[in-house]
Amino acid sequence: MVNSRVEDKQFPRIKHLKLGDKILDLSTPRVMGILNITPDSFYSQSRIQSDSQAFKVAEKMINDGADILDLGGYSSRPGALNVEEKEEIARIIPIIQALKKEFPSMPLSVDTFRSEVAKAAVNEGVEIINDISGGLLDPEIFSVVSSSKAAYILMHMRGTPQNMQEHANYSSIFSEVVGEISVQLSKARTSGIHDIILDPGFGFSKNVEQNFELMKFVREFGVLGRPILVGISRKSMIYKTLCVTAEESLNGTSVLNTVNVLKGAELLRVHDVREARQIITLLDNFS
Q1: Which of 13, 91, 269, 277 is catalytic?
Q2: How wide is the angle at C-alpha 236 spanned by C-alphas 30 and 281, nearest 5°?
Q3: How does pLDDT run across 12-44, given as a tens digit for each residue?
Q4: Alpha helices in the chain (DSSP H)
Q5: CA-CA distance, 241 to 209, in Å (whole number)?
Q6: Catalytic residue at 114?
Q7: N or C: which end of the chain has fewer CB within 10 A?
Q8: pTM for the full model?
Q9: Catalytic residue among 235, 240, 263, 277
Q10: What is the count of structural domains for the chain?
């Protein structure tokens, strides 16, 4: 299997995740498909404008090999407009309900940093809350996740989506990011959250050069003992470096996802599920 490589044994970590009454085996990397229920996500082709479109995209991702679907009703791209909680909830709940009815065995994640949105989501059976702020923007999210027994993705970010790029000042990016994540990880554990995934937060309060520097240390994040999720799909670190657009960044995404799987990432969060699944399948043949 991909994750049985010698280098991964430097930082042994949990290789399974409890999702409600299911166990997700992480001994082989898993693929999380992105469903942006927003009009302004940075990758224009990922913007879902209707329930029927969301269903079609979700069905394709499932057929292409997605292990988890991640729904978001709030664009977190740099400088994104703020969205009211009621609007965020209104965008995602009907789609959650439809997906739970049609694909009951497919684990769902909701990308939100707001406790009220998280509460509405877990009440509909969502198994994972994906928090870009790692509990910093709304600490109440810890108690919501803990009481629901949902899994929690704890990402590193400084500031808010509106001003995060103003906080990309690091003297030693890995040590500072891992230190800040560890503080929030401790708070999440103290709140009673047991199933936690860590996300270094590529593209969030980090510039292009810092993203590449941080990526060198994906394996070292294993020192925290938790599964690692990497989300670099079609991001600016790719298209700015290659002088292309987000729409032209699939090849670059595949290259960097390959690098991250080789560095031990357990989950890939992507727009293009089929291509990510192919990466994992091909690398499995080197074991």
Answers
A1: 269
A2: 25
A3: 677 889 888 889 999 999 999 999 887 655 444
A4: 51-64, 85-102, 115-123, 141-148, 173-190, 208-215, 236-242, 250-262, 273-284
A5: 9
A6: no
A7: C
A8: 0.92
A9: 235
A10: 1
